[in-house]
Every structure is written in structure tokens, then in C-alpha cells.
Amino acid sequence: MSNNHPHDGGQDRQQPIDWRKHGVKVIPGDSLDPNTAQTPGMNRATAINRARAGAEKIWAGTVVIHANAKTGAHHHGDLESIIYVVKGRARMRWGERLEFVAEAGPGDFIFVPPYVPHQEINASPDEALECVLVRSGQEPVVVNLDIEPVEKPEGVPWKDPIHR
Hints:
Protein name: Mannose-6-phosphate isomerase
Keywords: Isomerase
Domain Cupin type-2: 62-132
CATH topology: Jelly Rolls
Organism: Phyllobacterium sophorae
Distance between the termini: 43 Å
GO molecular function: isomerase activity
């Protein structure tokens, strides 16, 4: 087994790696950092980023949307986002005028490609929507948009392009 550090280009090091300092990090759920970019209607909190865990390519955290609430329309620049629904019912709207809609529940994953205007909606009138959020980069990019949404968005069921 090599003592190569994954961030040194694969070259042999003279010193062994301090795996205690440069190894696995466990971030307790009650110590997430709310000081991250926000969108009206939701509360984001950072679990994993460069400053907190040494991550270089991803960001992860949580998002809570209160009962019967919705976020403002926004996008995340060139970042890809994955939302995992832990509790509640998510209604996602997206498009130039938020003209498309789909819903997700506990155990479902939502993929949001770069630059896609979208809005998260808590579909429950009395239960908080709780999700885990992962992004493909470190920058806390949130571009809030002023969009006049269409009244009745088109429902879009997901179909796996591989297993049709």
C-alpha cells in the first residue's frame, strides 16, 4: 500500500500521511453551519465544504422548507445539485417560467442541472420538508430570479432513459 496522498499528483512522499488529520470526517447533524447562501422560503445549512471538512470538489448540507411554503425562483450557476428527500413532500417547478412540475417524497432523489431556473415547494400544509443537498462545487452560488410563473405548470413524470 502506498502512502501517496490523493492530492499530490500520485508522487511518493517522504513523510507518511497523517490520516487522523487528513482522513474521514464526521460532522454531527446538530453542528451544521447556517452561514451559507440562502433563498427566500428555505433554510440551508452547510455540513461539508472546504473550510469545515477539507472537501475540494463537493458541497453538502441540509435544507428545510416550512409547511405550506415555497422558495423564490433561483438557479445555482454551473453547479449540478442533488436533493434527497428525507421527510415530507417536495414539489419542484422549473423552466423559463416555472412551466414544468414534478413531485418527490421520502427516499426520492432530485437532480437539478446547471443554470436551470427552479423553485422548491413544500406540498404539505402541515409538515416541514426536510432534504439533504449535494452540489458539484464549493462556491455557494445562488442566483435569485424574478420570474412570473405560469399558472398551471405541465406535469413531467420521470422515465429512466436506460430502462424504458
